[in-house]
Amino acid sequence: MRVNLTFTTLGELIKEKRTEMGISLSELGRMTGISKGVLSKIENDETKRPELRTIKPLVDTLKLPYENIVELYVEIGQRFDVLCELILEAIELRNAKLVSAIVRKLLESPHENTHKSLERLYKVANSIVNTEMKIAIFTPVIMYARERGIPLYIAKGLYQQYLIEREDLKRLEESFRMGEEIAHYVDFLSHEEQLVYYYRMTLHAYNIKKYEKCIDMGKRGFKIDQTIHELKQRAAYVVINSYILLNEFASAEELLYVSEKSNHNFIIERSKFIRANIYFGKGEYNVAIPILQECLSEATEDTRVHIMNDLLESYINLDDMNSVQKFLEAEEDSLCFNVKTPHKHRELGRFFKLKGIWQVKMGKYDCAIQSYLRSIHSYEQISANEDINQCIGEIFSLHFELQQSIELNLLEKLVNVYNAINKPIKGKVVI
Q: How far apart are CA 184 and CA 199, in angstroms?
């Protein structure tokens, strides 16, 4: 809400508000920690543009809207370098709303060239480490570029914002939708940015089980890329896995062959595991198991849980419950729970879900419920709502089959999880 005050300078604004609140200059000094002499100079406009860190206690004490302060600062110093200093001061204060407000005012200034301002703001944002402050600059830049129909800075802003937002594992679906919008502006990115975009989206799509989109994004990147850098090889790896999960085994084998011929070491090191995955995908578990066992003996921390899961699922599908038990006794302690990537969170969730399935078959119902709850916990870390709903369904089905009532604390926990992941998102705007 905008305050209607009759003022033309920053000093007048502060003085009028202080008088309106019935606060003396000395009292305001005690309340803010700013000396009476400094306050007097500010009110009398002897200090034309006091630093924001000086003004902030006054703003908080007198409850002055930052929008009014920003407008006056813009009037005081209309040059980009002056306003840019103001942005940097707001960044030091960690005030994202103020940063965005200053950026908007700067872009609306008739004294600056639009394209030059956008480029300089883009550089300022990329020089900042704090991601919240980066977003505070990119958001108004993107909005302004949209309003003025400047696709270059829609593309550049969205690209940088996407690279930040995709790191939030709780919002993988939302950030992927943001990434999809970049496809409309991808020609305005540099060649290197296009490659990073396509390959990051390839990995992103795989992590949220959008396998067809994973393949599509990977193909787009491969089409314009003649290198063999690791990001391309990681993208090829998940594209092969996507083909397998979609039962397109010929395409998976073809890309595996091309990658091996192109000396993609990341793929070559995992080729045995990939071939085991192909047999696993085809349902040829007796062929897949010995290869997976060999892979497990050579596994890294990065691949172990995935191999373990394929072995567990193979044993379960063969109804070999004794092998499952021996395997869990021998291997479960080797699991790494220091998980940081979406793929590992998903695989850890899959591990406990498979363990729960086995425990149900063995009649260990209480243990199975605990495994399903641990699976839900892992899936919650990446908001894998479909998988969470499946685990909740398994718990309810188990109680129904046993004709047992659900304990109140367990029911409350499941209801809270279900409501949290299934509530509609109102007024959500992705920019």
A: 16
Share of the chain above pLDDT 90, in %: 56
CA separation for the pair 365, 358 (Å, rounded): 10
DSSP 8-state class, residue 405: P
In terms of Cα–Cα distance, which of 207, 235, 241, 238 is closest to 222? 235
Give the number of other Cβ atoms within 10 Å of residue 365's Cβ. Answer: 15
DSSP labels for 154-197? HHHHHHHHHHHHTT-GGGHHHHHHHHHHHTTTGGGS-HHHHHHH
Q: CA-CA distance, 344 to 304, in Å (whole number)?
A: 10
Rounded CA separation 295/232 (Å):
23
Task: Give me 262's structure tokens.
Answer: 């192109």
Which amino acid makes up residue 211?
A: Y
For 310-340, write each residue's pLDDT tens digit: 999 999 999 999 999 999 999 888 887 777 8
Structure-token pair, residue 130: 């704090």
Contact 314, 280 (CB under 8 A): yes
Distance (Å, whole) CA 201 – CA 311 = 29
Q: Scanning the structure block, which residue is given the tokens 């990446």?
A: 382
Report the distance separating Cα 359 and Cα 324, nearest Å.
10
pLDDT reported for residue 3: 42
Name residues whose C-beta falls within 8 Å of residue 373's C-beta, 6 or more positions apart in sequence.
391, 395, 413
pTM: 0.79
pLDDT of the residue at 76: 61
More confident residue, 90 or 24: 24
What gap in Å lies between CA 280 and CA 285, rounded to an integer? 6
The DSSP result for 264-293, as a single string, is: -HHHHTTHHHHHHHHHHHHT-HHHHHHHHH
Query: CA-to-CA distance for 254 and 289, rounded, in angstroms?
Result: 23
Q: Within 10 Å of residue 190's Cβ, how many Cβ atoms?
A: 11
Q: What is the residue whose two structure tokens read 């306003």?
A: 83
Crossing angle (nearest 10°) for helices 10-20 and 52-62: 30
What is the chain's length? 431
Q: Largest alpha-carbon pair distance within the chain?
A: 87
Q: What are the tokens at 329?
A: 């006794």
Cα–Cα distance for residue pair 341/349, rounded to 1 Å: 13
